[in-house]
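Q: For a teaching handout, I want to show students what a protein-ligand complex looks like in token form. Below are the inputs, and the small molecule is fe (iii) ion. Please produce the holo structure.
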Amino acid sequence: MAKVVGGIITSHIPSVGNAISWGLQEDPYWKPLFDGYVKVREWLERVQPDVAIVVYNDHGLNFFLDKMPTFAIGAAYEYNNADEGWGLQTLHSFKGDPELSWHLINNILPAGFDLTVCQEMLIDHGFIVPMSVMWSDKPEWPVKAVPFAVNTVLFPLPTAQRCFDLGRQLGKAVRSYDEDIKVVIFGTGGMSHQLSGERAGLINKEFDLEFMEKIVSDPIALTRYSNTDLVKLAGSEGVELIMWLVMRGALGNDVNEVHRAYHLPVSNTAAGVMVLEPVD
Ligand code: DHB
Ligand code: FE
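A: Here is the structure, written as tokens, with fe (iii) ion included.
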């Protein structure tokens, strides 16, 4: 049977993609950020997952303000990347796992989560930047990937509680897949940030650190935040943190924290990264 081997939480800052393209990993501004990912890459090298389910938000590339599904999943053999306006290099296409996608769809929909199923899905920086940080030095990413998009852009958004419940169902669905594969689940986005408006530039370090603590020890407490609370505390784009709860829900009740790094500032936010393993 398939196994959820772990979860990776990471912010998805577009300029990090450019730092990789321009080879700036050792630059004094960028080095502390990339140092935070060394242990994550070592973990991936050791665990060797077969598939990555990447929970991220689309920022206006594949879905725009005219049509915004709350939850959408890719079911394609291959996905293409494009840049929705950050000046990022377009990367190679990458392999999907449509059999796993359909298994997830058929096990998540009947449980009451109405996913939009995408036979084609363009992938933006919310997906690409975290994957590049992990594997940009490899000619091909060593995993198949299933993109799983959550609306954090156009209100109304799904609640933190709904995301956590969806994650629980996602975890159950993976564990009932009759193939011996290792699955890692990414939750991208955050940390606190706001890119425009009167509070542009907002960063709330205290809240970020509390969120990182609770995602390990008390995710239920995080499900009690409303999206209005999250926007107030973490900024209009900081509400992306709800996607961490999808990943966390999929890991089960208790987790072992393998790694945590927090570096501030990067672009308009803090770079947060964590690796969690389910305790079974
Ligand atoms: C930034 C962060 C994001 O999560 C994003 O989607 C776009 C930009 C930033 O800090 O620049
Ligand atoms: Fe974002």
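A: Two things your students might notice: The first strand starts at residue 3 and ends at 10. DSSP finds ten helices and eleven strands in the chain.
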